Amino acid sequence: MIAKLKQFLSELQETPNPEQQAHQLRLAAACMLLEVVFADEEMSADEASMLPTLLAQTLDIETTEAQSLIEEAKQRGSAATSLFEFTSVINDNFSIKQKQQLVLAMWQIAYADGHLCQYEDQIIRRCADLLYLKHSELIQLRNKAMAD
After folding, report:
1. Those residues with Cβ within 8 angstroms of residue 14's Cβ, 6 or more apart along the chain or in another chain
2. What is the pTM of this model?
């Protein structure tokens, strides 16, 4: 019993190495994009084909790595209790420009199937608020996504 408690406490005190931190950051971004995809409770073919490319561009990673992140994010996202656990990681590590790029990707994935569901809109707005982006930035990013 005491050994298990010691093990638990030591795991909490361990700081992840930079590679693990980078992976957690990418995973948080992937989870946020998946929140938008599943806001309307289904993934369209357009969203499915666009998601790995958008994630790869947003995070500057290879498409194959984006695919594996998406699979991992599907499992992790279903266990998530709030958007805050993803946005807090993003806030700690992303610049304003990177946050804007992520929100732009969220808008692009929301418009991938040709229409914007009210739930997709709500999630993106909530995420932008949690990422401390201005409302004007949010609207500019939405307009850019619509133009693309």
Report:
1. none
2. 0.83
Distance between CA 52 and CA 70 in Å, rounded?
Answer: 7
Q: What is the CA radius of gyration of the chain?
A: 16
CA distance 137 to 100: 8
The amino acid that residue 30 corresponds to is A
What does the pLDDT look like over 115-142, one tens digit per residue? 888 999 999 999 999 999 999 999 999 9
| 55 pLDDT more than 60 | yes
Using alpha carbons only, what angle is made at residue 53 by residues 102 and 140, rounded to the nearest 5 degrees?
Answer: 35
How far is it, in rounded angstroms, from Cα 135 to Cα 140? Answer: 9
- What one-letter code names the amino acid at 91? N
110 in Cβ contact with 36 (< 8 Å): yes
Choose among 89, 78, 82, 91: nearest CA to 133: 91
